[in-house]
Each structure stands twice: as structure tokens, then as C-alpha cells.
Amino acid sequence: MSLAVRWSLYFRGSYQIMEWRAMCRQQRLQHYEWVSAFLRARGALRAVRFSVAAMAMAMAMAVIILIIEAGGPRTQPAQTMMWLAAGGGVASAVLWLWRWPSRTQSIVFVAVTTGSISLACLAYPDPLAALLGCVAFTAIAGYAAFFHSTRVVLGVFLVITAVALTPTVQLASQGRIALSTVDLFLVLQANIAVAVAIHTLLRTVKRDLAVADLDPLTGLLNRRAFRRQLSAQVSQASPGTYLCIALLDIDNFKLLNDTHGHAAGDHALVTVADALRATVSPTAIVARSGGEEFLVADLLSSSGDIIHYEHLCTTIEKLPVPATVSVGTSWMKLDRLTHQDLGEATNSLIAAADMAMYRAKRNGGNQCHHHDTLP
């Protein structure tokens, strides 16, 4: 391996690390969207929706039982607080039965549920039962740790601590200092332990998945991550948007390997990957689909924007490596596309782009061919 290639691969490795860290920072900013896409890709959205809705409805029913039972609150303010708590649970259940919430709606759900549990605990006349009732915060603390940032989790912890301290002080004023202290410790320990365990486990898995999503040579996404990110991007697409798929294949790559060695071939792959990353639009998803093939997906406002991919051939031809590419593109309008048929539509687009790419190869390579619009 030549010194130039060694240095190129060294700097490329450093760049991959920087890029991975930047991607992790971006994923922290979009954690809720990442988790939603992760669950959607595995067909778990419906189960999670119904589970959260059932949890919220069960809490609402528990509060109603406490209202009507003999030892429940009897003053009007306390009963109002309890009914508001039950109403918050019912509203949360309706939200989750209706749809998968947006990030903002999810944060509102955390706030409403935390507030509802707080109202119920503060309104209940028996301070010992109210303190033990703070264990109900465990469910929403775990939810916040799974779906949201550390800041949201800390906010929930502050509320839990403030609410739990109120009956603790009441019990201590009755001379039950040891009991109140132990119960407060158990309540806080349960909430913190569950949230920290979920938060740590999910972030660890997320980091491992982020690394597993990258092609080790080029630093681009692999095909699995390409499809997952495409699904997330399409879910946020505006009406009238076009989904474009481009398939690129390095011309005569086997000859390049045989003539100059596999190190030169690797260097060509890395250089082409860098050129794609720098040339395509910021919203495009770029992946190495295998061997010397690359996939690009982007959402376009007009089908005419697909002409941009013709310039890739010229861009790559000017690179300091003996390589050119054949490009095939296809596109379709997203108006009637649903998540259920996105996978099938993506397969059709990739197959169409593949046919167009091989047509470009048969015509001599170093050119871009477009496939007709898919229905």
C-alpha cells in the first residue's frame, strides 16, 4: 500500500469518527423521532400505543376508585383535584388511541400525566397512602427516560421529589419520622432506578446501532439504515413531494482492482463516497449498498430536480482517482403513499433505478439515465 493511500485512509478514519460523533449529537437532538422510527421499522407502534393508552386509562380508573371509596377526599378542592387527575388520564389515553403523537404532543403527555399523578397524591387525605402513591410516577419517569432527553427526565424527577416531600413532612410532623424517611427513600429509589436503567440501556443500544448502521470503509449508511432513515424522512414529507432514488455503480471496478490493487479500489470507494456526501443536497440519504454500488434517496419539490444527478458523473470523473460512475434514477410522487406500502415502493424505485443504471453501463458508462415515472 502506497504512503499516499495510507495517509488517505488514516485521515478518512479520523473523519469517520468525527462524522459518527456529529451524527450522535444530531440523534440526541432528534431522539424521539429516532425511537419512533426504530419502533415503526419493527412494527411495534400499535402495541406501544395500546400499552401506553391502557396505562393511562388504568391510572384514571384507579383515581376514580379512590374518589368514591370511603377513605377518599371529602373536601371540594381535593375532590376537584382528583377529578382533574382522572380527566388527565382519560385525555392521555384518548391521545394514544387516536394516533402516534408528535414529539411536542409526547412532551405534553409527560407533563399532563406527571401533573395528574401529582394532583392525586397531593389531594389524598392520608399522607402515608399519598407518599406510597408516588410510586405511580415510576411509569411516566420510565416513559420519559425512554422517549425523551435527560432534561425532560430531570424535570419529572424534580416534580416527583417536590410531591413526595409534602406527605413526608406531614408524616414527620406526626412523629413518624423514621417511617416517612424510609418510605421517601423507597419511592425516590424506585423512580430513579427505573428511569436510569431505561435511559442507560437505550442510549447504549442506540450508540451500538449507530455504529452498526455505518459501512466501515466509507462511513456511509448501510442498506438497512438507509431504509430506516428513508421511512422516517418520508413520514415528514410535505404534500406534492417527489421521492427520488439514484443508484450509482463505479465503472470497470474489477479492472481497477486487478490493475492497481485492492488498496486503490478501497481508495476509489472512499473518494467517491466523499464526493457524493459533498455533492448531494443536505436532505439526501446516501448509502453504500454493497460492493461498488451506492444508493441516494432524496425528497424533491419537483420531478425536474432529478436532472441534478446528471452532474454526478462529471463531478466524479474529475476526482483524483481513475474512476467514473454510471447512474440510474427513478422517482414517484408521494401523495398516495402510506407507510404500509413504502417498502414495496422503495423496492420498485430501486429496481427501476437499477435498470436505468445498467442501461447507462451498456451505453459506455460515465452517464446518467432516468427511468420513466412510476405509477
Enumerate the spans where pLDDT stays under 50 for 5 or more consecutive residues.
1-29
Can you give the helix content as a percent range? 55-70%
User: What class would the helix/strand composition place it in?
Assistant: alpha+beta
The count of DSSP E runs of length 2 or more, i.e. the number of strands, is: 5
C-alpha-based Rg, rounded: 28 Å
General description of the model:
By secondary structure, the chain is an alpha+beta fold. It has two domains: 181 residues, no CATH class; 151 residues, Alpha-Beta Plaits. The chain has 14 helices and five strands. A five-stranded mixed sheet has the order 2-3-1-4-5, sandwiched between helices. The N terminus is likely disordered.
In short:
68% of the residues lie in helices and 9% in strands. With 375 residues, it is an alpha+beta fold. The model is unreliable at 1-29 (pLDDT under 50).
Features:
375 residues; alpha+beta; Alpha-Beta Plaits; five-stranded mixed sheet
Topology, please?
Layout: H1 3-29, H2 31-41, H3 45-68, H4 76-98, H5 103-123, H6 127-133, H7 137-147, H8 150-173, H9 177-212, H10 223-235, E1 242-250, H11 253-260, H12 262-279, E2 285-290, E3 293-300, H13 310-317, E4 325-333, H14 339-362, E5 368-370
